[in-house]
Amino acid sequence: MTIDTHVHFWKYDKKRDAWMDDMKILQQNYFPENIAQTLSRNGVDGCVAVQADQSELETHFLVELANTHPIIKGVVGWIDLQNDNIEERLAYFSQYPIIKGWRHVAQGEPLDFLLRKNFQRGISYLQPMGYTYDILIYHNQLKPAVEFVSAFPEQKFIIDHCAKPDIKNKKIDEWAVLMREMAKHPNVCCKLSGLFTEAAWKQWSAGEFYPYLDVVFDAFGVDRLMFGSDWPVILVSGIYVQWKSLLEKYMENFSEDDRVKVFGENAERFYNL
């Protein structure tokens, strides 16, 4: 199967979704029926629906969508990992096997967030229950993130959007060093997603992304990288087919086996789809 590991769905709410204020194209409803044709046209068999809002209601919303839309092969939900009752809430959500993992929007938190005791306590309950954790950070949060993953060598982690390097300003050196540090932890994977919006919106050229792709391919290798679109956020800076074909072009001299891994096999294994 070809799997898109990073798709969002929402019913637009002006107050809740204030982060979209400068992204007019996102200020509307996005449901599975809005992407079904795009996935089909691009030869994608299914997707992983990832939380966009920080609420248990969001997790229920994604589970409900998955129940009625078979293109959703897995859900990465939200749960309050800092709450004292985290074990109880995880036990409650374990009734929904479609939930494969969890994510917190750590990119909006202080630098030390991932290292906080109560957050790490929450993380410690995930691996015994077979859950993954998506790390959503900016490039300037990579240093504490490396320290964070080293505390949980058995936990399956995945870095969203290659840790959002500063492509717009062509900064790569410090990010590259820290991504290589991150990749030394064999339990950490990386999503090839979200890079269009880190470049100058709609003004990028394909070649701008190659140095960043070189770093993650070299650091993580084809066994720990996964294709993702970050739809519909990608629409701010480009369209679905542009990102998928850019990655296909980048990998054109890779073996068929390697392409199959990056575009689906790794996702099936990592998220237990």
Description:
Helices cover 35% and strands 14% of the residues. It has 273 residues and is of the alpha/beta class. It has one domain (3-270): Metal-dependent hydrolases (TIM Barrel), CATH 3.20.20. The chain has an eight-stranded parallel sheet with strand order 1-2-3-4-5-6-7-8. Strand 2 (46-50), helix 2 and strand 3 (72-77) form a beta-alpha-beta unit. Helix 5 (142-150) runs parallel beside helix 6 (173-183) and helix 6 runs parallel beside helix 7. The longest helix is centred in the last third of the chain and has 15 residues, at 256-270. The termini are close together. The mean pLDDT is 97.
Secondary structure layout plus pairing:
Blueprint: E1 3-7, H1 32-41, E2 46-50, H2 56-68, E3 72-77, H3 86-93, E4 99-104, H4 117-123, E5 132-135, H5 142-150, E6 157-159, H6 173-183, E7 188-192, H7 210-220, E8 225-227, H8 240-250, H9 256-270
Parallel strand pairs: 1-2, 2-3, 3-4, 4-5, 5-6, 6-7, 7-8
Estimate percent helicity.
25-40%
- Estimate the mean pLDDT confidence: 97
Instruction: Work out the number of β strands.
Output: 8
Question: Main β-sheet: number of strands, strand sense, barrel status?
Answer: 8 strands, parallel
The CATH level-2 architecture is identified as Alpha-Beta Barrel
Rg: 17 Å
Structural class: alpha/beta
Can you identify the CATH superfamily?
Metal-dependent hydrolases
How are helices and strands ordered from N to C?
Answer: EHEHEHEHEHEHEHEHH
* SS field, number of helical segments: 9
* Total number of domains: 1
Under CATH, the topology can be stated as TIM Barrel
Q: What is the CATH class name?
A: Alpha Beta
First-last Cα distance: 10 Å
- In order across it, which strands form the biggest sheet? 1-2-3-4-5-6-7-8
Q: What ranges have pLDDT less than 50 throughout 5 or more consecutive residues?
A: none
Q: How much of the sequence is in beta strands?
A: 5-15%
